[in-house]
Amino acid sequence: MEGCKGKGRKEEVVHSRLRLGHTGFRKTLFLMGKVESENCDMCDVPESVEHVLMECRKYERQRRILRDRMHELERKKCERNISAANISGFSTLPAHTQDFLYYRHCRHFPYSSQVFLFFVIKSSPGNYERREVLRKTWARERQHNGLWIRRIFISGTAGSGVEKMRLNKLLQVNDILQWDFADSFFNLTHKQILFLEWMERNCPNTRFLLNGDDDVFANTDNMVEYLHGLTDNDGGKHLFIGHLIQYRVPIRSPGNKYFVPVQVHESNSYPPYCGGGGSMAAGFIYDMSKSITLLPIDDVYMGMCLAKAVCDSGLKPESHMWMKTPCFYKEVLVVHRFLPLQMFLMWHRIQNPELDCSSSFKVL
């Protein structure tokens, strides 16, 4: 994500920064915009501010050099030192010790871009507790049976003063991708498309996505087992799994939260789409989105992307009338609307090795 343009007057140092938590590369970029205008006369700028501007430009040059160097190291593969085999007694050493000696000179290795399941979690800036619980429960980054699970929160901006300071402190976790637009219901599609664009550049080999809200409870172990068990599990097929919603039409009443006027969407119908708090999709979905006009309701927009691919719309929902016990949640893939405490407690209960339940995956 290159470039972050400042919009302040010439005497102001830009305060807004784009902080990018790169789940694949685990680094944070701090992009400071230039505070120049076309008619900027440096003679009119106070000495102290001119000094700050010079320092900013110097910082920008150093940052670009460092960034380019990091990218070069990330791409470059460190070759093994075959001369290590000449070390006395090398052939008698265990294989892992030999491997260590072959690569002992290496200080950088390319990052793995092979992500099997990527959690893309829509989260408003103020939802600190929800994000912290997710990091410690189902959205924890890890390997499951050798398959990488990654996580990123996507957000707009909101609040000021203390709220922004608090979010900035939490951005140090390096797992929040934030853009400079208002975090609102009608900008959810922007979040989705901007993330997919970012993912194509930074994690192009991602096989599957879980799109979810930060109040979703997901049994990620079940997800990985289900996806890995598919005949075609390389992410190239048109998979879309979630709570199927069909035969819906645009709401034309201005007072309704889901109001979509004809100026935004001319058709009087929506394609089938996955609603609720979460859905799973194959990584192909971004290719579909490039030629489709944005719609403010993100669930419907993703359904439009799927309709373009002319595929099945996913698993049909089931009704569950029984008591929702830990065994119930142990069998599901995704459940919407959990409070942070409920999520924390339920996650640890279904992880109990003594909990004995049947296995049949469900999507709610």
TrEMBL record:
Cellular compartment(s): Golgi apparatus membrane
Keywords associated with the record: Glycoprotein, Glycosyltransferase, Golgi apparatus, Lipid metabolism, Membrane, Signal-anchor, Transferase, Transmembrane, Transmembrane helix
Main location: Golgi
Keyword Membrane appears in the UniProt entry: yes
EC supergroup of this enzyme: transferase
GO cellular component: Golgi membrane
GO BP of this protein: lipid metabolic process; poly-N-acetyllactosamine biosynthetic process; protein O-linked glycosylation
Top-rank taxon, per record: Eukaryota
GO molecular function, one term: hexosyltransferase activity
Topology of this chain in the membrane: Single-pass type II membrane protein
Entry's EC annotation: 2.4.1.-
Pathway(s): Protein modification; protein glycosylation
Stretches of the chain forming a coiled coil according to its record: none
Keyword Transmembrane in annotation: yes
Family statement: Belongs to the glycosyltransferase 31 family.
Protein name: Hexosyltransferase
Organism encoding this protein: Neogobius melanostomus
